[in-house]
Amino acid sequence: MNYNKKTVKDIDVAGKKVLLRCDFNVPMAKDGSGVITDDKRIRAALPTIQYLLDQNAAVIACSHMGKPKGEVVPSLSLKPVAARLSELLGKDVIMAEDVVGPDAQAKAAALKPGQIMLLENTRFEKGETKNDPELAKAMASMAEVYVSDAFGAVHRAHASTAGVADYLPAVSGFLIQKELEIIGGALANPKRPLVAILGGSKVSSKIGVINNLLEIADTIIIGGGMTYTFLKAQGGSIGKSLLEEDWLDYCNDMMKKAQEKGVKLLLPEDTVCAKEFAADAEPMTVDSMHIPDDCLGMDIGPKAIAAYSEAVKDAGTVIWNGPMGVFEFPAFAAGTKAVAEALSESHAITIIGGGDSAAAVQQLGYADKMTHISTGGGASLEFMEGKELPGVACLLDA
Ligand code: ADP
Ligand code: MG
Q1: SS3 readout for the chain
Q2: Which residues line ligand 1 (CB under 6 A)?
Q3: What is residue 34's predicted lDDT score, i.e. its pLDDT?
Q4: Which pLDDT score, from 0 to 100, does residue 354 have?
Q5: Residue to substitute in 198, 201, 228 for testing ligand 1 pocket (most ligand atoms within 8 angstroms of CB)
Q6: Tens digits of per-residue pLDDT, 234-246?
Q7: Cα 7 vs. chain centroid, distance in angstroms?
Q8: What is the pLDDT of residues 308-318, one digit of tens each?
Q9: Which atom of ligand 1 approaches the CA of 224 most closely?
Q10: Closest Cα to atom 16, ligand 1: which residue?
């Protein structure tokens, strides 16, 4: 896939109507009060919005929220987002009552340069997730330029993330530009050595990432719940640890393949285990190949921490996807914390992809020490798998 795409700076937007796809899929309070519990995604969109407004564009912003499945679900209205965006911009945000209906059309037609409006939740339209060309055409008809800045949604070929690009000149905003530059750069032309740290819960959900990174990394570090399927495949006793029987052969094949390619594949020498999966379970450090029958692996041990920290020390680039242990329980967060710390101290370009990994790095206080924390969970995973991202492929090549 070509990651070199035109950006909002490569196209004239002055005085033009710009359809801007944002990722305003923010978490809302469960009580239906319309309170946004984390406005990070709205704030992340501000640089592109502010740039467009400064260029005197008329901005027609849009986004999905949740899964209304083509129905108008009032609790998934973007009205609270418009209110918050208005506060952050210090400027009126005109809210449309629909996506491409009469209200949106009329407000878009009346929109002046330097003004901003927000369409309703794109998934209130049945055609959105089907990438219906009629819906895409209707959205595009309100604007003259399409700017995509919703990295969190680029792995989906929906009407507002890809379809509209068939009808308008399409470029990226600053958020997508940064993701393409840093993750795309690390995949296509990494500063070496490239170390990939792969953890999280399951081997099966990371197969694509392992396959792709095995082709390009110099070192692969394994941690988290996927470790134990690897250890079992190697003849270890893993007790009650997470195991995916169906992937044992795959793990052995990967270890063989790594050896053939001269890629270092590191498994933890020791493991912190417990008798049950609980926050207050007693942590015990054991040899990874001999986890007691009544125990399950919860985190990497101190020897693994030392080895993994050493491995990232002289890295040129580190791509990290998946926590090293059950970091949600403080007693089993040490491995994830130590790896985050090692990354923060290395001179490498450090890239964090994956929703839980990003949350872990934030929660443990290392967020501002990383080169880049991807804003897309599923999207960054598919990016690291080397898959084509429809919301990127549809943009004009630079
Ligand atoms: P990401 O969202 O970053 O891609 P995943 O969703 O693959 O990461 O995995 C994150 C989850 O993996 C966390 O909730 C964490 O508790 C869990 N996990 C990590 N280590 C273990 C383990 N040893 N046993 C069970 N679950 C684990
Ligand atoms: Mg996850």
Answers
A1: CCCCECEHHHCCCCCCEEEEECCCCCCECCCCCCCECCCHHHHHHHHHHHHHHHCCCEEEEECCCCCCCCCCCHHHCCHHHHHHHHHHHCCCEEECCCCCCHHHHHHHHHCCCCCEEECCCHHHCCCCCCCCHHHHHHHHCCCCEEEECCHHHCCCCCCCCCHHHHCCCEEECHHHHHHHHHHHHHHHCCCCCEEEEECCCCCCCCHHHHHHHHHHCCEEEECHHHHHHHHHHCCCECCCCCCCHHHHHHHHHHHHHHHHHCCEEECCCEEEEECCCCCCCCCEEEECCECCCCCEEEEECHHHHHHHHHHHHCCCEEEEECCCCCCCCHHHCHHHHHHHHHHHHCCCEEEEECHHHHHHHHHCCCHHHCCEECCCHHHHHHHHCCCCCHHHHCCCEC
A2: 200-201, 205, 224-225, 242, 297-298, 321-323, 325-326, 328, 354-357, 377
A3: 86
A4: 87
A5: 201
A6: 999 999 999 999 9
A7: 20
A8: 999 999 999 99
A9: 20
A10: 326
- CA 326 to ligand 2 centroid distance, Å: 12
Cα of 180 to ligand 1 centre, how many Å? Answer: 25
pLDDT on residue 342: 97
Question: Known catalytic residue: 202?
Answer: yes
In this prediction, residue 386 carries a pLDDT of 92
Catalytic residue from among 66, 70, 355, 377? 355
Low-confidence ranges of the chain (pLDDT < 50): none
Token pair in block for residue 30: 């469960």
pLDDT for the residue 32: 79
Active-site position among 16, 21, 41, 206:
41
